[in-house]
Design a protein that fits this description.
By secondary structure, the protein is mainly alpha-helical. The chain is about 45% helix and about 5% strand. The chain has 5 helices and 4 strands. The strands form 2 sheets. The chain has a two-stranded antiparallel sheet with strand order 1-4. The longest helix is centred in the first third of the chain and has 25 residues, at about 30-55. The chain is globular.
């Protein structure tokens, strides 16, 4: 029953994402039902188990990573999971934020200074600001529900980090 309710509350948002986040010819409710819903529910259950282990504290940062080769849909999957997890966390007032390794890419000027002239859409080793990623994770860890945090965004169509970062609420 939980899965059916979640499907009903989130499938339309998934269907809208297909047009903006990733290239898909149809809505594919079968993929949403059999892949994304169970995955999101598993992440949520893992988070709840972690909270139980720390005596119900909901102020803990829970990080779930998605990895894979270039072009397999990691960013699209993260956006879909964000919709589903956002619905699951709605009642507790918690939120979901996403950040991609691409969001930590060095700017074109920074890459040029390092002599890195690779194709602009491929995140070759050495082209990411690891320190920035560590700083953002530390900021999330030390945040609270009133914190406003800025998360960088990489614009794939320009090959550059956006000058406008996304503002998200802390944990």
């Amino acid at each position: 029953r939980r899965r059916v309710d979640l499907f009903q509350k989130t499938f339309l948002a998934f269907a809208r994402l297909k047009d903006t986040v990733f290239d898909m010819d149809e809505d594919r409710p079968d993929v949403f039902w059999s892949f994304y819903l169970p995955w999101a529910m598993w992440i949520y259950d893992q988070k709840m188990q972690k909270e139980k282990a720390v005596r119900g504290r909901t102020d803990q940062l829970y990080v779930h990573g998605v990895n894979g080769p270039l072009g397999v849909g990691k960013s699209a999957s993260a956006e879909i999971l964000k919709v589903i997890l956002g619905q699951l966390l709605k009642e507790s007032g918690e939120m979901v934020a996403t950040m991609s390794i691409d969001d930590l890419r060095l700017t074109g000027d920074e890459r040029a200074k390092l002599g890195l002239r690779e194709f602009p859409f491929v995140g070759a080793p050495g082209t990411h600001d690891v320190g920035l990623g560590e700083t953002i994770i530390r900021m999330f860890r030390s945040s609270n529900e009133t914190s406003e945090l800025a998360v960088p965004r990489f614009l794939k169509h320009t090959g550059e980090r956006s000058p406008e970062w996304t503002m998200v609420r802390g944990k």
